[in-house]
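OP here, attaching both records as promised.
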Amino acid sequence: MSELLTIGYEGAVLADVLAALGRARVDLLIDVRAVPRSRKPGFSGRMLAASAQAAGIGYRHLQRLGTPKPGRDAARAGNAAGMAAIFNAHMAGDEPQAALAEAVELAQERRCCLLCFERDPHLCHRTIVAAMVAERTGLEIVHLAP
């Protein structure tokens, strides 16, 4: 368990994401979207949780590790620096810090993968979350591609 994985499902189908998680031996999928809904079939929270469970993968939604709406708007506009600034300010709050502590605990106990939408991890807040978890755990960050 020396790695913390991340994955984005943009442009992918559920079967490909689940296959990538299976190949990587993921034990727990941590959804770090603020709003676990998607227009892409299979990626809304309940459906994703059920599909992951059927594949032998746990699911946990940590809503407070999601990007607030202004950050999501900045990301959609291609403003990665603005998104990061908004997200980092959000993470100073008590509730996001509690969610981060939970993610750290889970990552120390199980092989976890952080999930969000964006394909490119460098344009997604999940990389910031992963760095925060890795800083506290010493885990190596590995970005998966479906």
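Record two, same layout:
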Amino acid sequence: MALNIVMFGPPGAGKGTQASRLATERGIPKISTGDILREAVQAWTALGQRAKAVLDAGELVSDEIMVGIVRQRLAQGDVDNGFILDGFPRTVTQASELDRILERRDPLVVVELAVPDEELVSRLSQRRVCASCGAIVGRQSDTVASPTCGSCGGELVQRSDDREDVVRDRLRVYHEQTAPLVDFYSGHARFRSVDGSQLPDIVASAISEAVDSTGGATR
């Protein structure tokens, strides 16, 4: 049986990192909406051209375009044994469309990474990025108090979208647009919520156990 997974959670919950770990563990591709958007634009597909025009105008890609790009990606052969979607769906409308795309496929496993807002604000506002090599240093690192990168010696800086006021605005948008997915999926037998405020290795184990508890044990 194919293992089809959606992983979602608020900004800073670690869903991208955890989705990559789980994808490697289960031998299925991780599909990031950011990646497939860029691929569609670079391939100059019809949807990619529409997406580029929207992005160049500084606007958000519509549900219609995003659903179309995801539909095309899920038609590729490397997802026959399953996939992990990271960043899609973002809205209930997108979730409903995903259900239609997957009508004749194996059931969807949905994993929510739940982290309190104040933990996310603290986590993101203390995060630093190396201006030279791009390494990310989190608050749990021993080197976070240092002004330089432990890997290359470059300057550690704060990204503009990690400022506290920006983080709080991102969380507001998440609660308005994406948090309703919890209500949408809570009635699904394969919905699981995982405490994402724990250490990354503990979260990874909890996610793996949650997936196994649904019967999705592809390895």
